[in-house]
Amino acid sequence: MGSKRKDWQYPSAEWVANVERLVMLEAKLPEFLTGKSIAADSRDWQALFEVCGNQQRYVEAAKIFANAFTADAKLANDMVAHHRYHAVFAAALAAAGKGKDADKIDDIERGRLRRQAIEWLRADLAHWTKQASSDKSSDRELVLKTLRDWQRHTYLAGIRDKDVLAKLPADEREACQKLWADVAEVLTKSSEAK
Question: pLDDT tens-digit profile of 26-65?
Fold first, then answer.
């Protein structure tokens, strides 16, 4: 209706199309979770992530991300869209017992999700470590901002905060502590390079 007005400046048709895509994909979510269906493109994967995230279904979101990265590795490595980082959030939150579907998983699955979150975060850290060596100060500043955000972001508390880590099995606790020590090292090197 608004688009019929001459002074209308909003992309209404795009908004409607996006909502229609979300509704259609939500109806097919069980097929995507079991691997029976594969998203047609990155926009559909993004819509599936959005559906799960909006509904606080972090276990399902982590599974969708894993399926998406298996189907198209470029999605995981897209450092502009940050799909892998969003996947870390989903896995870490689910492992911490957050979300509407977290009660459906046991301690073994929580551990698997924590390990998956750490693996994904390590993959992103590899990218940021490489960027920290850049000659451009803007690249190094982005590394500093990103990794400092990691140190503060509440979504990552379940794989970062000392009181939570103290309750984890020794191998998981050590993997988390090593990750955060490596993050601190990259931050130090980036700061010194200024």
Answer: 888 888 777 787 777 777 878 888 888 888 999 999 988 8
Domain ranges within the chain, ordered by starting residue: 10-192
In angstroms, the CA 111 to CA 117 distance is: 10
Q: What is the dihedral of CA 112, 187, 128, 150, to 10 degrees?
A: 40
How many other C-beta atoms can be found within 10 angstroms of the C-beta atom of residue 117?
27
Cβ–Cβ < 8 Å for 101, 90: no
* Residue 97 to residues 36, 81, 192, Cα–Cα distance (Å): 27, 26, 38
pTM: 0.84
How long, in residues, is the chain? 194
